[in-house]
UniProtKB/TrEMBL annotation:
InterPro entries: PA_dom_sf, PA_domain, Peptidase_S8/S53_dom, Peptidase_S8/S53_dom_sf, Peptidase_S8_Ser-AS, Peptidase_S8_subtilisin-rel, Peptidases_S8_3, S8pro/Inhibitor_I9. One of its GO terms (cellular component) is apoplast. Residues 383-472 form the PA domain. Belongs to the peptidase S8 family. Residues 33-118 form the Inhibitor I9 domain. The active site is at residues 152, 225, 558. This is PROPROTEIN CONVERTASE SUBTILISIN/KEXIN. The keyword Signal applies. GO terms for biological process: proteolysis; response to symbiotic bacterium; response to symbiotic fungus; system development. Residues 673-771 form the Subtilisin-like protease fibronectin type-III domain. It comes from Salix koriyanagi. GO terms for molecular function: serine-type endopeptidase activity. Residues 144-599 form the Peptidase S8/S53 domain. Required for arbuscular mycorrhiza (AM) development during AM symbiosis with AM fungi (e.g. Glomeromycota intraradices).
Amino acid sequence: MFENTVKWLVFILAIYLAFNAVVSVNTPLKRKTYIVQMDRSAKPGYFTSHLEWYSSKVQSVLSKPEIEGQADEEDRIIYSYETAFHGVAAKLNDEEAERLEEEDGVVALFPETKYQLHTTRSPMFLGLEPDDSTSVWSEKVVDHDVIVGVLDTGIFPESESFNDTGMSPVPTHWKGACETGRGFQKHHCNKKIVGARVFYRGYEAATGKINEQNEYKSPRDQDGHGTHTAATVAGSPVRGANLLGYAHGTARGMAPGARIAAYKVCWAGGCFSSDILSAVDRAVADGVNVLSISLGGGVSSYNRDSLSIAAFGSMEMGVFVSCSAGNGGPDPASLTNVSPWITTVGASTMDRDFPATARLGTGRTLSGVSLYKGRRILSTGKQYPLVYMGGNSSSLDPSSLCLEGTLNPRVVAGKIVICDRGISPRVEKGQVAKQAGAVGMILANTAANGEELVADCHLLPAVAVGEKEGKLIKSYASTSRNATATLAFLGTRLGIRPSPVVAAFSSRGPNLLTLEILKPDIVAPGVNILAAWTGELGPSSLPTDRRRVEFNILSGTSMSCPHVSGIAALLKARHPEWSPAAIKSALMTTAYVHDNTHHPLKDASVATPSTPFDHGAGHVNPMKALEPGLIYDLEPQDYFDFLCTQKLTPSQLKVFGKFANRSCRHSLANPGDLNYPSMSAVFPEDTSIKVLTLHRTVTNVGPPTSTYHVVISPFKGATVKAEPEVLNFTRKNQKLSYRIIFTTKIRQTMPEFGGLVWKDGARKVRSPIAITWLTPLT
C-alpha cells in the first residue's frame, strides 16, 4: 500500500512541476502571442495599406525599453490576416495587450490557444465503391476541380495515395503555393497535392525555435496524422494496401478525384491558434472549396473562439468547414467545434474487425482485437504465466496502468502482463511491458471505455479486451496462484454485426453553448481506419518502433472528419452552386439511424441505442446525399441573426459582422428558429410555458413537381405537430415554410428524442428532434 502511495505521489509531483514550469513563465512582462482582430473599414486614408495601419497600432502601445536607448529588436507582428479574418498576430506583454484592446479600430484580442489533434474499407462500407461497377462518384472530370484544404501535421508526398496519374491540370482558380524546405521540394507537389504550406510562427513564439534536426520545418509529415487524414479525404486508389497484412484491399479516399492542399499547423508540441488562423485565412485566399480540420481545443463562447470566427469568415466566402467533434466521449457535453456554421463530426465503427483471443489456463477463451504482427509469436499450444500488478480494489494504480517505470522486471519478465487502459497511450503500455521483459500484454478496458475495442499495432504480442472480459481476466490472475494464458491473432474479419456503432470515445452532446443547436451533426467511420502513412515513423508512433509501413490503421474523430470532408467535396463537385449550409443539410437529412441488423444505432459505451446527442442526425450516407430532395439552406446573415440571439454585446457581435458590415435583423424569435437541419426544442424553467414553436424553410432541389407528407415520431412528454402537414412544390429551387409546434403533456426529467421526416414516395428528408425541459428553479 505504501509503495503504491509513493508511486502516485511521484506521478502527481511530476505533473505539478510540469504545470508550474508552464505557469511560472507567464509573468506580466513576458511576451505572449495575441490574435488582434481589426475593423478593416476603420483604416484612416493616410495609411497606404491595412498592414501599415495594423503595425502602427501595435507600435503605439509598446512599452518603453527599461534601459534608455536600448532598441526592441524583436519583430512583434508574426502574421497578418486578410481574407477569412482581418488583423494580425502579435507578441505583446499583458500591459501592452490591455492598452491595444482600448485602441480605436481594434475589435477584439484573443490570447494564443493550444489545440490538439483528434487522433480501405470505408468507401465500400459507405456505398461509394460498389463491388460490381465503377463508382459513379470518382470518375467525373468535374470532381477534379474541387480542392480540399487539410489543416494538420503536413503530408508525406511519396505515398502512392498522392499519385496524380490521369488527373487533369490544376484548376485555373487555384492561387496556392508549394512551399519548400528540408525534405520537401517543388516536385513533391503535383496535380493531386496542389499546394503545401507551413505555419509555425505562433508555435515558435510559445515554445522556442523548432529543432530542425529533429523536426521538418517544411510541409513534410513525420507524425503521420496529416498524411492519414489527407489520404482519407482524397487519396488516389492504391491496390493491395494493408498494414502488416491486416485490412488488405484497395485504399482510396472519399473523393479520389479531388485535389489536396496541405497546411501544416501542428508540430511536436501541439497546434497553436495563431498558426491555425493564418492557415485558414491563407487557404481561403488560395481558393480551397472545403476545409478539413481534425483538431480542437476547449469550448469557449462564440466571440472568444478564434477558430469559430475564422470558420465563419470561410463560410462567408463559400467554403465548407468540417471539424472533428473530439475524443472526449462517452462523457456528456464533451464536444468541441460546436458552432452551427461548422459541420461537427463524431465517430462510428465499420463492419470490419481485427479479432484476437486470450485463452486462459482454465480453458476459457475471451475475444478481443489486435493489429500485432511481429517476430515474437506466442505458441497457441503453450500457456504463459499471467500477472496483474493492480489490487483487488476498483481504483487503478500506476503499475496496473503500466506507466513508464512502474513495472518490476523481476515480477513480469517472461509473463503476459495485464495493463489497464488509461492515462498513457495504449501502445506505450506495450512498450513499457516489453522493456520490463514481458512476452505479451492484455490491455483491459475500464468503465470509461466499456466494451469498445480499438485495435493497435503493438510492439509485442498484445490483445485489447472489453471491460467485462478484463474484469474476468484480472479476477483470475489475482485469485489463482498459477494463472496462465496465451494469445492468438486471427487476421481481418468482414461483415461484423451490428455496425455501425457509435464509438465510445466520440464526444457527446448536449451542446452547452447553445442547447437549441443539436450537436454533433453527424457520425462517420472513425474506428480502425486504414489510410496512407509517413515513412518517417513506425505504425505505433513510438520512437523505438523501427518498422516502416506505407499504410496505417488509426482511430479517432480525426479519422471521421476527413470522411465527411471528402463526401462534401463530392457534393460540391456535383452541385457547385450549393452553399456550405446546403451541403451540410444534404449530409444530415439523408443520414441513417439504423445499423445493418435493422435496429437503432447503438452506443459502444453502454451497448444500448444511441441518441442524437451521440450520433447527431445519424450516420453519413453519401449516395443518398447526392439527391436529398429538400435542403435547409442558410445565408451568412442567417447565422449572424442566430448570434444576435446569444446575448452578445454589440462589440462582441462585431467580431462576426465586420466583413460585410452586418447588423441584427431580429428575424429569429429564439435560437432554435435558425433554419438548421436538426431541431432542438428547449422548454425554459418556467413551467407555465407549455407551447413552443420552431420555424423551418425547405428548398426543393429534387423534381420540380413534388408533394411531401410529414411523419413525426411520438413523444411521452409532448405532442409534436407540423403545420402544414403537406408541402406541394411546383418548381425547382422553390422555398416553402412550415412550423413545428411542441406542446408539453408531462414535463420529463431527461431529454426526449425522435425525428421528423418529409416523404415524397421516393425520398425521405429526416431531421432529428430533441426536446429538453429545463429543471425549474427552486
